[in-house]
Amino acid sequence: MQKYLSIMSVFIVLLMTVGCAPKVAVQPLVPEKRAPNTGQLDVYQSADAIGRPYKKIALLSATSQKRVRAEKGAAEEPIVRQAREIGADAVIIKDRRARTQRNDDGMGGSFEVTVYEVSAEAIVYE
User: Fold this and answer.
1) Where are the alpha helices (DSSP H) in the chain?
2) For the whole model, what pTM was predicted?
3) Which of 14, 27, 46, 86 could bond 59 through an S-S bridge, CB–CB 3.0 to 4.6 Å?
């Protein structure tokens, strides 16, 4: 019985870890593909801070679920990774939200998670 409970505990922890991986949605705004950005990627909180011409190439949104006390940047990190992958020079963070929700643990109980949602525009400098 002890072995069964131990195996179930490991299984539940694995399910919770996999289910919490950040998901990034990409909506391309231009048809051409770009090489990945291997250099610096700038992160702006407002388009007013850019100070040079740019073009939007994609809309990005990410959702990350973490147990309570998750890091605030949990959903921004995958946005930056995805922006690099599609060849962006920078991202403009458009919206950032956090909410707490209760999830069923499948064994008659529940646990709280913080859900972080971030939306951004991927841009290239002209």
Assistant:
1) 2-19, 76-85
2) 0.73
3) 27
Please tell me what DSSP assigns to residue 86.
T
Q: How far is the C-alpha of 89 from the C-alpha of 31, rounded, in Å? A: 17
Check if the beta carbon of residue 44 is closer than 8 Å to that of residue 80. no
Torsion angle defined by CA atoms of residues 79, 67, 115 and 49, in that order, rounded to the nearest 10 degrees: -40
56-99 residue pLDDT tens: 999 999 988 765 444 556 678 899 999 999 999 999 999 988 88
Fold classification of 22-125 is: Translation Initiation Factor IF3 (3.30.110)
The one-letter amino acid code at 9 reads S
Say how far apart CA 68 and CA 111 lie, in whole Å: 9
